[in-house]
Write the structure tokens for this entry.
Amino acid sequence: MRRRTFIHASAGAAAALAYPPLTRAESRESENPLGREQKDHRSGDKPVTHPVVHFEIGCRDSAKTQEFYKQLFDWKISNMGPAAMIAGETGGIDGHITALGHEPQHYTIFYVAVDDVAGYLEKAARLGAKTLVPPVDIPTGTFAWIEDPEGNTVGLWKGKS
């Protein structure tokens, strides 16, 4: 299996790599019983300190991909700028589908909420990860991508307060 690399993305190009998670006002988070503080299902009472808050599906053909997921899962998908936003269902999180028009063409990624994107990039590096996309400020927050020691890509996200 051939591994793709995202290391050559510049900070300017990185802004096109991910469309931001919806802000609290834009999302249906108030309808989501999990909200931003997801419960730890193992103990049932402690909130998860760094929940997965968003996911992204990269593709070549956004319309075809949207239709597939609408039919497969009955997802509510609406166009918003360069992305097709997937509304979080009860018990789920928001996401989006995007066709970047350049590599990477096919990928999935999830974003973990952190309070300091640069700080978590440093911590991840100490633990053996690589920074794939350095911190990128966008209107709704800051994101970055890391590659863990096993080659998985994970997004870090801090929303604007």
Residues 62-73 form the longest helix (12 residues). The CA atoms of residues 6 and 110 lie 15 Å apart. The chain is about 15% helix and 30% strand. The beta strands are 52-58, 77-80, 83-86, 95-98, 107-113, 130-138, 141-147, 153-159.
